[in-house]
Design a protein that fits this description.
binds S-adenosylmethionine, 231 residues, eight-stranded mixed sheet, two-stranded antiparallel sheet, Rossmann fold, 36% helix, 8 helices, alpha/beta, globular, single chain
Length: 231
């Protein structure tokens, strides 16, 4: 499916904008991942941009996970996928508590003789932007990501301070966080302290100070490149 067709259909759907949708669509057209894991789909805009690219390529599936509570959003991903005929490319899961539990089940499924067989070529992390949940999600996702696969984190500079005054965001009670936890960007910390320091990864790119990319290969550059351009 052509980009223009989904762009027009998603015009009023939060959260992914046209520019980011275009980046994601092109990344998929260029890299041709067969299996994609998405952590956090909300209404499904990002899932639809990716599914449209897979459809254009003629193959591939996105497994995407959110909270059960997100099912009632309008529009929801089921409706968008049906309207656009993209259902064959999207497998939706919803968890009561967290996508870390979905990842637990996937690792169990993939484990044979004490080894977890990786299954994903690309993983897009766009959930609560929280050190505890997303740091652990990186550890779990790493087991499922194939060699040479890419991981992308959204919200590199996002902080919990955005939601001070709210009781909780994505299940995280804001008033239970220390001041430094509220004011530091957790995805940036996860990227710098966990991803970049993990020897299995290289080719690190921070794009527009908002998206952080890493490739699961030991042979690329270990420097972090900060850029406004596509990877
Ligand atoms: C920013 S939205 C995702 C936006 C979507 N990727 C897009 O660009 O259109 C973040 C989503 O993460 C979900 N989420 C937050 N914490 C989660 C968790 N622990 N497990 C699963 N989903 C979670 C929320 O329900 C929300 O829908």
């Amino acid at each position: 499916m052509k980009f223009e067709a989904v762009r027009d259909h998603l015009k009023d759907v939060p959260y992914m904008g046209v520019d980011e949708g275009w980046e994601l669509y092109n990344f998929i057209i260029k890299n041709k991942p067969k299996t994609i894991l998405e952590l956090g789909h909300a209404h499904g805009a990002s899932s639809i941009f990716m599914a449209a690219a897979l459809d254009e390529l003629g193959a591939g599936v996105i497994e995407t996970v959110d909270l059960k509570a997100a099912e009632g959003r309008s529009p929801n991903l089921e409706a968008l996928a049906a309207e656009l005929g993209l259902k064959p490319h999207i497998k939706i899961s919803r968890e009561i508590n967290s996508y870390t539990w979905f990842l637990k089940k996937k690792i169990e499924e993939q484990t044979k003789e004490n080894f977890c067989n990786p299954i994903y070529d690309f993983c897009f992390v766009d959930g609560p932007k929280n050190w505890t949940i997303d740091g652990f999600a990186f550890f779990l996702t790493n087991k499922l990501l194939r060699e040479n696969g890419w991981i992308l984190f959204d919200d590199y500079k996002w902080t919990h301070s955005k939601h001070v005054g709210r009781e909780s965001t994505d299940g995280i009670t804001i008033r239970s966080l220390g001041e430094d936890e509220i004011n530091q960007a957790h995805i940036e910390l996860i990227f710098k302290l966990l991803v970049v320091q993990c020897e299995e990864y290289s080719n690190f790119v921070v794009q527009d100070n908002w998206w952080a990319w890493a490739q699961k290969t030991r042979t690329g550059s270990r420097k972090v490149r900060y850029t406004k351009k596509s990877i």
